Every structure is written in C-alpha cells, then in structure tokens.
# Entry
Amino acid sequence: MTQVHELAAPKDWKVLAEASAEKPVLLLKHSTRCPISAEAYDQFMKHVNKEPVAGMQYALVLVVEQRAISNAVAEELGVKHESPQVLLIKDGQVVWHTSHWRITADALKEQASKYR
# Structure
C-alpha cells in the first residue's frame, strides 16, 4: 500500500520540497471543515489506494490544523492558496495544480503519470 505523508511540522515541508528533486510529489491541501474538500480527499485516496503512480511521493497538509505549513507551501511555490487543492511538484517547482471539483482520481492519475 502506498503511504501518504502528512506534513505536521514546517521542516516536513522543507524535506518534501527538497525530495521532489529525486521523486515528484503529489500534495493535497485538505480542509477538514469543508464537504468539497472531503470529496477531493476521497478522490485523492482512491487514486493512492487503487492506482498509485510508481515513483511518486504522496503527501497531505491539513490546512486548518497546519495553517503555517499551508501558507509556506503557497508562498514558496507561488501558487495562490485554495482548498481543496492538489499540487504536483517536481524539482521544487509546481508542474501542475488544480482545485475543488477538478480533483478526481482520473485527473490525478493522468497528471502524475506524466512525471514518473
């Protein structure tokens, strides 16, 4: 089973961003207070559990509980914060991102497959 790394400290984000030089990262910014985000989370986990892309790192940041990390991600990557939001990161740069109802297992598989 593929592991999803939950970012719990600012250093977790730094390590993940640096690691994207070796393996691309698919990061979900998830709000535990939003029903749209709950659906995006379900789609993300469906992708991770059923058709993960080999060599891809999967990560999650809870935007309410870990606001500082969420803000750091937005600021450092230069992508306006949305929630829910998925960012595909390669070499410390966003190569694709989407949000809200566009987060589907099929879209995640399609985009992640381009960067294995």
